[in-house]
């Protein structure tokens, strides 16, 4: 007698380098399908003579990868929690500490009577710390885990952030802010951890929405400065700005280690436990079968970034990240300078007048300056929305190129000696697009590198960005004294070159899954063990990598 049964089958289509089959393209099916009634299954004889469908004889013969499981489980409650925690790291450990630079510099310039080069050095030393540590944090994250590197960097930043509020003299605050920068260099690894838990269709949108937390952090820092600076002063601003890191440090204990990292380091049981936890929180079925393990001992090696497949990508990305940070932080510093001058054309004459006065003469930020600073900071929000709308339509490369081009165009428009209102609008648009381009780079970089070098790739790119941020104070604050127009030409020209570099990137990652290994075949060390979930089996009908 034929055996009839109802069988739920979870079908996987691997994402990554492989292309979809013609049937998949025509049908437009999702990565997961639940099929209904199956009939005429080939029976399998048991020892007592009973017959059962063949698919029930050994439901764990198939294999799956972490990418398959993440796509099968989908986006749910777990990812929402992870989004908030990652966003908190972005707001407290990154945005607020960066925004302090444009507020602290003019304050210490007046209070400690610092010359312009020392004011610029106060900003640059933070980026020196970030530049020197970014690659180190990336290496730690690839060798010992994303969660480990992130926790250490957050606690480091919290400790030295609070200490910097007690700096008695200039040399002390210079050292302590440099150590704060050293800790901030590990924050981009939160994006690595975040991206490795996201399904392909949600990845770009979710990483871009982290920029909302950056905007929240910068707006909060400006509002905090408005309340604290006139009464308590800059020391309390530094201390209070570091306190949100304490909340993130506590929440870090909830964070799981990346299942992709566990797979690559050979921790199969830990990876399966993490995937089961996500499936439980999301209320989704965990696929049966054998989790493929590809242990790779050589992780986080710099030479892997310069293999023939990645060499050109790495070099172009380094320049793109350099230009992003150089232009973004340059604009943040220029905004303060332009608002204090009133308009672009009078800034050079204003500088000369200040030089001619007593060295004790300086200008604190006024309430109007804080208000305009807040408005330009709010430009981060429309920048996110524009980038969010175009990144999955025109791709990552074109999004970055467009962002650089618009920033360059707005910089050139400042040559027209516009008034304060038009100046605010141009700075608003320029900041919206350069921040959107920065986030597009944060989407593209983790997608283009495999798991074995993903953290290192992002870390080295972040390090190159800090080189740009290190140089930019001497352009936005020192060169500005000599020529406003030369300063604008430098920023505009740099972004034009970065737009060209974005177009020449060899790999477009739109619609592409995260690559698990730098090897094209998973043949190093394959270990599979079953992980059970009642009533769900996998079929082999998906295309393979």
From TrEMBL:
Pfam families: MFS_1, Sugar_tr. Residues 83-510 form the Major facilitator superfamily (MFS) profile domain. GO terms for molecular function: transmembrane transporter activity. Residues 516-545 are annotated as: Disordered. Keywords: Cytoplasmic vesicle, Membrane, Synapse, Transmembrane, Transmembrane helix, Transport. CDD domains: MFS_SVOP. SUPFAM superfamilies: MFS general substrate transporter. It comes from the Eukaryota. The chain crosses the membrane at residues 82-105, 117-140, 152-173, 207-228, 234-255, 309-329, 399-416, 422-444, 456-476, 488-507. It is a multi-pass membrane protein. It is found in: Cytoplasmic vesicle, Secretory vesicle, Synaptic vesicle membrane. One of its GO terms (cellular component) is synaptic vesicle membrane. Belongs to the major facilitator superfamily. This is Synaptic vesicle 2-related protein. It comes from Chroicocephalus maculipennis. The gene is Svop_1.
């Amino acid at each position: 007698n034929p055996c009839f049964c109802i069988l739920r089958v979870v079908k996987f289509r691997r994402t990554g380098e492989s292309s979809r089959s013609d049937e998949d393209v025509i049908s437009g099916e999702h990565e997961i399908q639940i099929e209904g009634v199956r009939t005429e299954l080939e029976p399998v004889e048991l020892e007592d003579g009973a017959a059962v469908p063949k698919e029930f004889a050994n439901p764990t013969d198939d294999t799956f990868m972490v990418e398959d499981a993440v796509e099968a489980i989908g986006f749910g409650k777990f990812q929402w929690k992870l989004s908030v925690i990652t966003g908190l790291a972005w707001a407290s450990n990154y945005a607020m500490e960066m925004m302090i630079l444009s507020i602290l510099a003019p304050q210490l310039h007046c209070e400690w009577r610092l010359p312009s080069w020392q004011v610029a050095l106060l900003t640059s030393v933070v980026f020196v710390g970030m530049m020197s540590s970014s690659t180190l944090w990336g290496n730690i994250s690839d060798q010992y885990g994303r969660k480990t590197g992130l926790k250490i960097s957050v606690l480091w930043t919290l400790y030295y952030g609070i200490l910097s509020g007690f700096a008695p003299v200039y040399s002390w605050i210079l050292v302590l802010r440099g150590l704060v920068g050293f800790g901030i260099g590990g924050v981009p690894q939160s994006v690595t951890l975040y991206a490795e838990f996201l399904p392909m269709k949600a990845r770009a949108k979710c990483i871009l929405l982290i920029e909302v937390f950056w905007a929240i952090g910068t707006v909060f820092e400006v509002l905090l400065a408005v309340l604290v600076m006139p009464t308590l002063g800059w020391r309390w601003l530094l201390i209070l700005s570091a306190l949100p890191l304490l909340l993130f440090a506590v929440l870090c204990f909830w964070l799981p280690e990346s299942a992709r990292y566990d797979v690559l380091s050979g921790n199969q049981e830990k990876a399966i436990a993490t995937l089961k936890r996500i499936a439980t929180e999301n209320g989704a079925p965990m696929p049966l079968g054998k989790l493929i393990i590809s242990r790779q001992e050589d992780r986080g090696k710099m030479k892997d970034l310069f293999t023939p497949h990645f060499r050109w990508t790495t070099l172009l990305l380094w320049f793109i990240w350099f230009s992003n940070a150089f232009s973004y932080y340059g604009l943040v510093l220029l905004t303060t300078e332009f608002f204090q001058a009133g308009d672009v054309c009078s800034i050079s004459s204003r500088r000369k007048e200040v030089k001619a006065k007593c060295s004790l003469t300086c200008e604190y930020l006024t309430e109007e300056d804080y208000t305009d600073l807040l408005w330009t900071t709010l430009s981060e929000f429309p920048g996110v929305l524009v980038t969010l709308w175009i990144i999955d339509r025109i791709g990552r490369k074109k999004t970055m190129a467009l962002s650089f081009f618009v920033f360059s165009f707005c910089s050139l428009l400042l040559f027209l000696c516009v008034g304060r209102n038009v100046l605010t609008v141009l700075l608003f648009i320029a900041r919206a697009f350069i921040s959107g381009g920065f986030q597009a780079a944060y989407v593209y970089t983790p997608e283009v590198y495999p798991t074995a070098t993903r953290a290192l790739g992002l870390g080295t790119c972040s390090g190159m960005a800090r080189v740009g941020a290190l140089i930019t104070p001497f352009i936005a604050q020192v060169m500005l004294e000599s020529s406003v127009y030369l300063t604008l030409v430098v920023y505009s020209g740099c972004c034009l070159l970065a737009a060209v570099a974005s177009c020449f990137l060899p790999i477009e990652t739109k619609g592409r899954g995260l690559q698990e290994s730098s090897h094209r075949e998973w043949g190093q060390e394959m270990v599979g063990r079953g992980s059970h979930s009642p009533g769900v089996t996998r079929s082999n009908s998906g295309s393979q990598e």
